[in-house]
Write a structure and sequence with these properties.
The structure is a single chain. The chain has helices at 31-57, 68-77, 82-90, 104-109, 118-124, 144-147, 182-190, 233-243, 259-266, 276-279, 284-297, 311-327, 344-349, 352-363, 368-385, 390-409, 416-435, 438-442, 452-463, 471-480, 485-503, 515-527, 533-546, 554-572, 580-613, 623-626; strands spanning 61-67, 96-100, 102-103, 113-117, 135-139, 157-161, 164-169, 177-179, 194-198, 219-220, 247-251, 269-273, 302-305, 331-332. By secondary structure, the protein is an alpha/beta fold. α1 crosses α17 and α16 (390-409) runs parallel beside α19.
Length: 627
């Protein structure tokens, strides 16, 4: 029997409380023509990308170069012969050594010369013609001390003290560069080692003599933050001539002043090293992982190794590195250091695609005048950031346009995600064709404007949500719209996530990772190419937004989040020092995981929505309360 005092049960809606507020895309009559231009221009871009892949596949050889002075120190600490310890490390894959130029002090340490302060000689030989503030040198190995004054502009003269001839130096010459240890170089060449020479310089060295005594080695790695002669044009020209067939090393994280001038003439080879202070904070397994990652994913062809404080730690690191490099398909040997030389004609033909895509993006916005103005501004911004290399500017145009283009053209069903992804992959080809040059692949010229690849696509997709009305009315409507506390929370969360993603773009930014995430990354990247977290997290958002199941503005928010996934694809391929196939592997792993998670989220949302719709207020009221 029905209780007449009881209120009727409320009607529970069977669908979303509010329909999706995402407007349909805007179709322009010139869309087929502009897409045709994009795909026509894709032909030369594909040729260039194929040539790049072939080039990178031929360079999967890396040398393991041990810092020899550091090895000597370790050997002496444990009472071992340096060559015997080196042989032990050679059995674990080391095939090269880095040799520093001798200094006057190292000649004394080897017992080839003897240095004495003036006050010591004066004390030992009272009345001798010595100056207390001078430094005196004589040969132990005949001729060594006598050969040094000609190397410098420092005035010296000979005095006789205690019946022996001494060279008088007005200041301490201990740290003056003294040329290579030729016997040592010859011995390592006999062993077939890959040699990296590290020269010093001093203002006391005549410009015309700098580099004339460098040994015949394949690679030169300069010390400090600048190459020799970076601040003196005449000296840099002399160094350029002295390099001969030697190839300068491009040290990751330390692009030295003046290096670009030498690379232009002699090419370059990428070198990866860890600072001793950082290395000593990590385990051998962590160090091995970082070196393997550098060789596999950052095209590092010289891995500059330093021994750990103990021999056991060093052997553990080398053994683990050898295992990881074998699993990664990286061979140990003499690196191939030819330069990639893309066809200028094919590159210029490839700019048609990004320009057509940018124009199409502008025409696809509801406010077309605003869209065309934004497209023109984007073009000027991209070219302005890369004013010295205009083709790189067009690569940036592709990187900021194609991630948004798919969602500007179609966004009504889940399958439209595949179209958006396909267009992003088309953009990848243009980015590679226009941005991959010898300098960018060596890391000398980082891609300028990488941060825009995450921001401008968001702005384009967000602009496509604007209604077709006077922009002033839209601004007024937005300003006067009632906002709920939940809306503020959602907006704050979205901005926080956007800031987190932006701060952690690239390889070296201010965004930090937790210890757990760092450990997880290492475990994953040791066994496979690690997909980018941004893509794995963002692709499901796009799929959920395209499902049409979310109420109100939530579909739009999900599409904006999904745009970050598309943008991250282009961002991945904007690191030209990373081999194209490695970036492709990372990209497709992210796409596969993102698609799977996205489809699961759609199913989960259906279950949760059904559970929510089954809720009836009267069902929660007990019999006693109803009575």
């Amino acid at each position: 029997m029905t209780d007449p005092l009881r209120s009727p049960a409320p009607v529970v809606p069977t669908g979303p409380a509010r329909p999706s507020l995402v407007p349909p895309p805007n179709w322009h009559p010139r869309t087929p023509l502009l897409l045709g231009l994009v795909f026509l221009s894709l032909i030369p871009a594909l040729i260039l990308t194929f040539q790049r892949v072939q080039f990178e596949q031929s360079r999967k050889v890396t040398a393991l170069v041990m810092d020899y002075p550091a090895l000597v120190i370790q050997a002496r600490r444990y009472g071992q012969d340096p060559q015997a310890l080196l042989n032990r490390y050679k059995a674990l894959g080391v095939n090269g050594v880095a040799l520093y130029e001798d200094t006057v002090a190292s000649l004394q340490q080897r017992g080839e010369i003897l240095l004495k302060n003036g006050y010591d000689l004066a004390d030992k030989f009272p009345g001798a013609p010595v100056k207390p503030n001078a430094v005196y040198m004589r040969s132990v190995v005949p001729g060594v001390a006598e050969s040094l004054p000609a190397r410098y502009t420092i005035p010296t003269h000979t005095v006789t003290v205690g019946g022996q001839s001494w060279l008088e130096w007005p200041s301490d010459p201990s740290y003056l560069p003294a040329g290579p240890n030729r016997a040592q170089v010859a011995e390592f060449q006999r062993q077939g080692m890959v040699l990296v020479y590290r020269p010093y310089n001093d203002e006391a060295r005549p410009v015309s003599q700098v580099g004339t005594d460098w040994p015949a080695v394949p690679y030169v790695a300069f010390t400090d933050d600048a190459v020799i002669g970076a601040r003196t044009p005449e000296l840099l020209e002399q160094v350029d001539r002295a390099m001969g067939q030697r190839i300068p090393a491009v040290i990751e994280g330390n692009i030295q002043d003046g290096l670009e001038d030498l690379v232009l003439t002699h090419g370059g080879v990428r070198l990866f090293a860890l600072a001793p202070s950082w290395q000593n904070q990590l385990t051998p397994e962590e160090i091995a992982s970082k070196y393997n990652l550098a060789a596999r994913e950052r095209s590092q062809q010289l891995l500059y190794l330093r021994p750990f404080p103990t021999i056991n730690e060093t052997t553990d690191m080398l053994a683990r590195l050898q295992e990881l490099m074998k699993n990664s398909g990286i061979k140990v040997g003499m690196p191939v250091t030819t330069a990639f030389e893309p066809s200028p004609v094919l590159r210029w033909l490839s700019i048609i695609g990004p320009l057509a895509a940018l124009l199409l993006a502008g025409l696809s916005l509801p406010l077309r005048r605003l869209g065309l103005l934004g497209a023109a501004g984007t073009l000027l911004l991209c070219l302005g950031l890369n004013y010295a290399t205009p083709l790189a500017g067009f690569a940036l145009v592709a990187a900021v346009t194609f991630p948004a283009l798919g969602l500007l053209l179609r966004r009504s069903r889940i399958t439209d995600w595949f179209i958006a992804t396909g267009l992003s992959l088309v953009g990848v080809v243009f980015v590679s064709a226009l941005g991959a040059t010898p300098d960018s692949m060596l890391g000398l010229h980082p891609f300028r404007g990488v941060g825009l690849t995450l921001l401008l696509p968001l702005a384009m997709v967000a602009a496509s949500f604007l209604p077709k009305q006077d922009i002033r009315k839209t601004v007024s409507d937005v300003y006067n719209a009632p906002i709920k506390l939940g809306d503020i929370a959602v907006m704050g969360l979205g901005l926080a996530l956007l800031g987190l993603v932006y701060s952690r773009r690239g390889n070296a930014t201010g965004g930090s990772v937790t210890e757990f995430e760092s450990s997880l990354r290492q475990n994953v990247q040791d066994s496979m190419v690690r997909p980018r977290f941004k893509e794995v997290a963002a692709h499901p958002l796009a799929i959920l937004g395209l499902s049409g199941k979310l109420p109100g503005y939530f579909s739009g928010l999900m599409l904006l989040g999904g745009t970050m996934g598309q943008a991250s694809i282009l961002n991945t391929f904007s690191h030209f020092h990373t081999p194209f196939l490695i970036s492709a592997t990372r990209c497709f792993l992210g796409l596969g995981l993102g698609l799977l998670i996205g489809l699961l989220l759609v199913k989960l949302f259906d279950v949760l929505a059904g559970f929510w719709r089954s809720y009836r207020p009267d069902a929660a009221v007990g019999p006693r309360a109803r009575a």
